[in-house]
Amino acid sequence: MIYCWSNIAFVIVAAATVSGYSFDNSEFNQFLANDLDDLYSNFLHHRARRAPPPEDDRCGPPRHRPKLCCAEEVFKAMHEADRDIKQLCFKEITGMDRPEKPPHFDPFRCENMEKHRSEINCVFQCVAQKKGLADDSGNVIEDEYMKYVKELLAEAPYMNSMVDKIAQDCLKEADTEEASDGGCNPTAIKLAHCLFRDIQLNCPEDQIEDKQSCEMLQERLKSGPPPQSR
Predict the structure, then answer these.
(1) Which of 36, 63, 220, 224 is deepest in the core (most CB within 10 A)?
(2) Which domain of life is it from (predicted)?
């Protein structure tokens, strides 16, 4: 079943955004889209799903995970490890078992854009708290986060020399974030975006299988401004 949830990679941000991650990075947005699709697919218990006709797809280009420069195994392991926690957090935040997916709907562009962005922000905070990476206010617990990044990147030993710098840089980038208007703390989603971006921008040359695709990915990651508070 092809819906706009799978096309977040092509979102153009044209309105006020949730403090923290501003949904302006198409590559990271596609990972968010995959998580949402995964939540929905889990709920369907692998039942056969009919794809809508082409005219029902108003979000444009093809939907697929971006081809990474390296550390594919890291992000796959992270996705699998967080799957059940995200399902639980999504239900806690929204009261629903899975995302609503009505046809002709892009959750990050249409009338409910801010609501859905806020929910994703809160899901990331919830996941971080359940994993012991954030306190009750959603602020990152730095020692636990450093340990988490090192354990995560143990799947990619070629990143060993850069682990501390990447983790510390991301902590600094997220350090000034605060919850706004009674919403959730954006630190967790900003850290996730920073980790994704900085790993891809620092892949060792000998680990890059498709240099042309990697260069294109890195250019897209560099061209988008880092998330900022609004």
Answers:
(1) 36
(2) Eukaryota
